[in-house]
Amino acid sequence: MQNNYTKPEFKKLLHKLQEESWQLELLISGFAIFGLFTAIPTITDNLLEAENNRRIYTFIISLVATISCYILIFNLLFHVLLRGLWIGALGLRYVSGDIDYDSLKYSQKFTKHLKKRVGSFDKYIGTLENYCSVIFAISFLLIFYVLAITFTILAIALIGNLLIGNDDLPSWLSEGVGITLIVFIVLGMLLTLIDFLTLGFLKKKKWLSIIYFPIYRVFGFITLSFLYRPLVYNFLDNKFGKRLSFALVPFYILIALTTTLKYNVSNVLGNDMTSNEYVANNNNYEDLLYKSDGFIDHVAIQSKVISDNYVKVFILFSESVEDRIFNFNPKLKPDEDIRGLTSVVTFGNNVSIKRGKRDSIRRAYLKTFNDMYSVKIDTTKYDTDFIIAKSKKGNLGFETYVSTKNLKEGKHILKINRLRIRKGDTTNWNISKVPFWYYKD
Prior knowledge:
By secondary structure, the protein is α+β, with helices and mostly antiparallel strands. The chain has helices at residues 8-53, 56-96, 101-104, 108-117, 121-164, 171-197, 201-204, 206-222, 229-236, 239-258, 286-290, 319-328, 350-372, and strands at 299-300, 305-306, 310-316, 373-377, 380-382, 387-390, 396-403, 410-422, 425-438. It starts with 7 loop residues before the first helix and ends with a strand.
């Protein structure tokens, strides 16, 4: 089967498949559009949650998935629309054949103009077929382009974290090799982009091609372009495919700009204002979060109106919170940072050792958190004892309860402060203010 592509029988099979491919195109487009519309709410929620919780890896994956979904939806909907028009044109041709301009009895000027501009109906059907085929193919090629950009950025980030940002490596390796690799990838990225936009200019000049060839080989691996190069070069050697590819670019830019549009109802007020003495944001109240698709904004209490004899205070956990704890108490910082992607499969006997120390480390970790964070209601500071817990929506964080015994009925402001060490000085920072109303039952 490896060499069948050289035989006439294989070429006949390809020709037959090309003629019947429109059925598969419509079938795949229909299922893909349904699946994409179903998946977008979940992917968007994951994107917002990752952004809110500052999980960089999840955020990047969700962002790439979101962009890919919107590109595919636009292209596939456009493809289905044109393919439907193509099917309608085929049906009309079966009924009435080609366009008979003479039967229209227009003046000679209009008849001549229409024959030149509109032309044959068969030509129109053929043009629609070309548009449909190219758009369907380019839909999936664009996803590879998005992945190529993502992998390039990830390569820069990995070099920065594993080499340049690694204090355990010697300086000649972390800075010398790391910075050299960063410069090579950034320069290679720019040259690859120039070559792409100029349709292979760097490959056409003899002396430039010698310099560009090793960069081309390396970026072929980083961007996984070896998987889709046949598609790219097939587009580039076809004027129609090349023109259509560039013609779609303004539409993608327009879609990207459209997603950023919002309508401002006020010069002063907005929907995304942070809670303070004058603003109550729903993202700081658990009962409102539980009933909606919102996410906790740093701090949450149980409700805007509290009739309980306590206020439940929940502080959202994030990697930046842990970084601040390590900075405040350097003894807690582990020799090896295991945050990020990991596997549940482990080898050796180190697991039992880690489990034996885990409780004592967590107690010290939690004590440091309690030393750093304090709670006030209005001007009164309360003694708190935060513990590790999860919110109603399953967010990991720190939870404590504050008595409302001495509160007067009416409006109050819950304030969360954090100690920060910077340049040897310890300062007390306010990180959140949440208004609430207290009324007894």
